[in-house]
Structure formats: C-alpha cells, structure tokens
C-alpha cells in the first residue's frame, strides 16, 4: 500500500500530451486543438500570446516547452490520417503526410468504413488533436464517428468547407471524399486542417 501512495500524482504519460508545432500559439489555436487536454507541449522557441496564457489558466491546462525534433514529432504525432487501402490517391497523400514532420502526422490504413470511424474515435480518445479520414462514403464515416461524445466529425469537400467548419464546429475529425480529388488538392486540404 505504501508503494501506491508514493506514485507521482497528476502525472500524464508523455504519449498522451498534445504537441503544438505552431510558431505562434494563440487563444484560437488552443481553443481549436487543445480542448479537453490536460497538458499541451509547445516548442522551446514558440511564442505563446497573452490571450493563450489566459486560456491555459482558465481551462487549467499545463503548458510545457520542449525541443521539437522531427524524431519526437514522428513518435508523438498530434494528427492522424486514415485512408482506405484500396484508394491510390489517398494512399499517396498519406505517404506524403507521413514523411512530413511539420505537423506530426501518423498515417494508418483502414479496412472498411466502420474501421475508419473506429480508428478516428480511437485517435481522439488517445489525445490526437485532429483525425483526417479519406473515404468513398464520407457521410457514413462522420455519422459513425459522431456517435462518440468526444468526436466532432464533419464532411468537408473544399478549402472553404474546412475554414467554415473550423470556425463554426471546431471539428476534430474531418472526413474527405478522395474519389474526385487529385493528390495536390487533398494534400493542400490536409495541411490546412492541421493548421
């Protein structure tokens, strides 16, 4: 029993911390990406605005400054892209996102629509800031994912949709139809979603 009392209190495992790679961390960035997070990590050189500091205090979120090496970002991704294994365009885009360390993308293949929704829910439960799902039936993925109380899923088809959803819904799961888009469009949309 004495060993249990000696355990560190309020310690959050490193793998669940949200890592923000933004060079300037503002209140709106935190409101969008850090909602419900106990700890937020930012780069040692990131600028944290006064309004962001107020937001952290008000929401009782701890801020930690860390060295953001590309190895660290790969190991502790704060964004996840899920793609159907049978869609070459989405597969190529996810491969490109996985190579990029700028937003800490983790990529994963899904075997079905249900599997894609389950993986998106699991990612949000594990503290991933944004889950991006490419699907041939985006409405079904969003509907299934929204059954979880932590998920705010939305179907987006354009840059304008993403901007509108980011402002109004503050979605944490974005579902995109990869059927009628090219690599460049999908990559641009993914980078906008990651912020």
Which CATH class of the largest domain?
A: Alpha Beta
Shape: globular
Major beta sheet, strand line-up: 7-6-8-10-9
Mean pLDDT: 80
Helix-and-strand structural type: alpha/beta
Radius of gyration: 17 Å
| Number of helices in the DSSP assignment | 9
Strand and helix order: HEEHEEHEHEHEHEHEHEH
Could you give the count of β-strands?
Answer: 10
Largest sheet: 5 strands, parallel
Blueprint of the fold:
Blueprint: H1 2-5, E1 18-20, E2 24-25, H2 27-33, E3 39-43, E4 47-48, H3 50-58, E5 62-66, H4 70-75, E6 79-84, H5 88-99, E7 105-110, H6 113-125, E8 130-135, H7 138-145, E9 153-155, H8 159-168, E10 173-177, H9 183-194
Helix pairs in contact: 2-3, 5-9, 6-7, 8-9
Task: Summarize this structure as a short list of keywords or feature phrases.
three-stranded parallel beta sheet, 195 residues, disordered N terminus, 2 domains, alpha/beta, five-stranded parallel beta sheet, 22% strand
